[in-house]
Design goal:
The chain is mainly beta. The protein has helices spanning 2-18, 46-49; strands spanning 20-23, 29-32, 38-40, 69-74, 82-86, 89-93, 97-99, 102-105, 107-111, 117-127, 133-143, 157-160, 164-167, 173-185. The strands form four sheets. It has a four-stranded antiparallel β-sheet with strand order 4-14-10-11, with no helix packed on it. Strands 5-6-9-12 form a four-stranded antiparallel β-sheet, with no helix packed on it. It has a three-stranded antiparallel β-sheet with strand order 1-2-3, with no helix packed on it.
């Protein structure tokens, strides 16, 4: 019996230690629980608990993530360049190659959304390691045939996209930035 109480006390103490308190930019405090939930910490002073009629309630939200992704790429590496994601659509920029004054980056698209995809466009910029821009291009990576549902990229489907071909001088490595600029689903 005493062992059980000792174990219970140890578990309760470890749970209490795991919770963290974070102070937001506006001064409010939030308790982050070990089970991925959170709650506002109650303020004890009356000045803090008063709410002015003109004061707007702030919306709790997830921070926005920039959609432009950057990566240093080596031609002798077998690693994919990067992955772009938008609204459940993932575009993988594959292992780059260089042929006849052209940098070639193969692409593949995975549809993890609930809608069929009609168009995926992206913007890609290739720079030297010192960030001198060599090429910038807007490209249609995936496009179905108008009014032909059989050509749509269906949910839970993976397809090869259009290769990205950029006329650049040969380098050992490139700095590549990319983002999805347009996505049309149906």
């Amino acid at each position: 019996m005493y062992r059980f109480l000792g174990l219970f006390a140890l578990l309760a103490a470890s749970t209490a230690i795991a919770d963290q308190t974070v102070t937001l930019d506006d001064g409010r405090q939030v308790i982050l629980n070990d089970d991925f939930t959170w709650q506002y910490m109650a303020n004890t002073t009356s000045a803090q608990t008063e709410i002015k009629a003109t004061e707007k309630t702030q919306l709790a939200s997830i921070p926005l993530i920039g959609k432009t992704v950057g990566s240093m790429v080596r031609l002798d590496s077998m690693r994919p360049t990067m992955q772009l994601s938008d609204s459940g659509i993932d575009v993988l920029l594959g292992v780059p190659s260089y042929d006849n004054q052209t940098l070639i980056i193969p692409t593949s698209i995975t549809n993890q959304s609930l809608n069929s995809v009609i168009l995926v466009e992206a913007e890609i910029e290739v720079s030297t390691a010192s960030k001198k821009v060599l090429s910038k291009k807007h490209i249609k990576i995936w496009q179905s045939i108008k009014r032909m549902p059989d050509t749509y990229l269906r949910p839970q489907q993976v397809e090869q996209g259009k290769n990205i071909e950029l006329d650049v001088i040969k380098q050992d490595q490139y700095f590549v930035t990319a983002r999805i600029t347009s996505l049309i689903t149906r």
